[in-house]
Amino acid sequence: MIFDFLGYGFMQRAIVTGAVAAVCCSMLGLYLVLKRYSLFGDALSHTAFTGIAIGYVLNVYPVWTATIVSVVSAIGVTRLRKSTKISGDSAIALMFASGLGLGVILVSAAHGFTIDLYSFLFGSVLLTSYADLATIIVMSSIVIGILVALRKPLLHFTFDEEQAKVNGVPVERLTYLFIILAAVTVIVTMKLVGILLISALIVLPNITSITVGRGFRNTMLLSISLGLSATVGGIILSYPLNWAPSGVIVMLLVAMFLGALAAKHAGLLSKGTGAETMQKEADGSSIHAAH
Q1: Spatial separation of the C-alpha atoms in residues 231 and 86, rounded to whole Å
Q2: 46 and which of 97, 100, 120, 160 could share a cystine (Cβ 3.0–4.6 Å)?
Q3: Is the dihedral of CA 99, 101, 104, 105 positive or negative?
Q4: What is the C-alpha separation between 250 and 267, in angstroms, rounded?
Q5: 3-state DSSP assignment of residue 122
Q6: DSSP assignments along 141-166, one per residue
Q7: Within 10 Å of residue 268's Cβ, how many Cβ atoms?
Q8: What is the pLDDT of residues 38-65, one digit of tens each?
């Protein structure tokens, strides 16, 4: 049978891992894209590279060291940005460069790259163990639960921090919680597409769904659907083709984005963007809250 390989345990673990990570990335990624922090996930992933290298040097499970280093780095850079008033893109560039630079030093000190380290760089979802699967499900469930519970304050915080403060939203605490969630999401995604392609899974489903031009709820649902379809479809397609799953997943997401652009150009989608519609939703919600 053509799909006999779906009965293999490693394939089932890969599909479940990919599905959970795709939902987590799509939900958090929408806030990152709307806040114009699209490259924040990329910078966090390079910081995670340092954490993984530390794990190998210390002979500790690298996922835990990557989580700690990513969270601490994200908080540190956020505090630096607030205290020195440097721009968001400069802070991201600083995190990007320092994370990769320190990681390379540590890898060279640990006597070079290993197969495991390559799997973190380029993804190895087909090698997901039961321990990896349990870790990813628990971490993703926590992130998704918090995002659902704090949907309204996060929406205000995303579009207008000053107005959110006026409406009583604890912006300072929300900022730190948000970057911690972003760091955890990056760690969850490493096994799926690797450090070098994480930003694709966070950004591409969301810019595609925003291009379609719907409200916040529909944009998030569409983003989740696209992320799930590309991830599960990519894992299944990659096996018989003997291609790397991470590359297939990313190229499916690119194809979806180009398809949405072509449909918009052909007049099949509304001219406005989802960002404009969601901005109006946030403004309307703020006015309602203020009264």
Answers
A1: 36
A2: 100
A3: negative
A4: 26
A5: helix
A6: HHHHHHHHHTHHHHHHHHH-HHHHHH
A7: 10
A8: 778 778 888 888 888 888 788 888 888 8
| Residue 224 identity (one-letter amino acid) | I
pLDDT (tens digit per residue) in 110-152: 666 565 677 777 788 888 889 888 988 999 999 999 999 998 8
| CA pair distance 261, 19, nearest whole angstrom | 25
pTM of this structure: 0.83
Sole residue written with tokens 């890898």: 107
DSSP codes, 227-275 = HHHHHHHHHHHHHHHT--HHHHHHHHHHHHHHHHHHHHHTTSS-SS-HH
What are the angstrom distances between the C-alpha of 6 and each of 1, 14, 31, 119?
A: 10, 10, 34, 22
